Amino acid sequence: MFNRRRFLQMAAAIPASAVIGRYKAMAAPLRKQVKVTDVKCMIVRGLFEWPMVRIETDAGITGIGEAYHGRGIKDLIMGLRSAIVGEDPLDVDRLYTKMITATGGTGATAGVTVSAISGVEIALWDTAGKILEAPVAKLLGGEYRKSVRAYWTRRPRDPMDPASCREFAQMLKEQPYGFTGIKCDYMARTGEPDERFSRHWTSSDLRRNVTAFTNIREAVGDDVDIAFHCHWEFDWIDALTLARAVAPMKPAWLEDPMPPDFNESWVKLTAESPVPILQGENLYTRHGFQPFIVNQGCHIIQIDIPKAGGLLESKKIADLADLYYIPTNAHNVCSPIGTIASAHCAAAIRDFRGHEFNVGYSPGAVTPSSRPATAAARRTPGSSMMGSPEMWEKFAVYDRPFIKDSHIQLSDKPGLGVELNEDFVRAHLAEGETWWG
What we know:
CATH superfamily of the largest domain: Enolase-like C-terminal domain
Mean pLDDT: 88
Shape: globular
């Protein structure tokens, strides 16, 4: 059996230039030496029910990852075990392809299957980084940046109330993370219950949202970037009407204004909108993003990295976008594990704009709750992490602040550089779950 002592002896023999050099040069002396022995998963109650993934090897080296949440995802992750056990964890891209191929009849081009594969892929990268004693960002091509700019998905308790907005602005100034950008949901549409599936703005709805956005902008000032999230609600003419109406407030972008599937309306909207159009959190793999990129169907792409295919697939998506001079953002509702993994990928992307930090709204906040199937309805009821960055931070052990001066800080430790806080996670396991059971 290949043990850790033998691995360290071999690693010490690698020239320093190779350790710092390309991934293949680093991996060559160890190829076929370490094997995956198991894949494990457990569900933890956080903002959502977060699926944690663990790769175990015969060298005693383990890697962790996180998949985007979804019903049935643990069964899907465990179903990938047969594709991974016995394999070399350094063959990440080949194993990703193997997992996609193995699940071809069960939705391997999109949806929760790709999210499950993403979580395993992230755990493989953490394992590879630990084997090669290098941060994951270095293995993805190297770092364009040592930290990644983050924005906070947060808004006033009542955006229609100027006093509430001023209170929010003061909180934003005093928070310890130094955020210089925020993202706010639109105000829920009103109207007849039978019309809740309509994609149309009424004049009253539009006026309410312009008032809310104006209140927030006036409260926080011009130096804070504000994005406006629409949750795929509108048809193209109403999306364009909204873009024109909020343009004076200089939004950083208008997010997901139309349903996520590509058609020519995205091209028309992008061409005519006076504010940047962002799209992507519900897209999967390069194939999902390709039509938006090559047809200029948005100004900015946004990848949910633990959902859309994992770290390397997301890097490939961003590289494709870069050919068309389209920048990349990262959508994120993960625990610190998925957040740090996503940030490693973002650090390796040339034209990266912003990474989401989202722990949910504080209890009592006015949220867009009229949508038929809101994200809020899928969040973990009664979670102690809801709306609390301080509780979110306790989920994991890290050698530095997670966020400082509005930037996610990356560790220079091997792999992702982050581990679970066992006592805290054990106390937040989902019903029926056991520690790596």
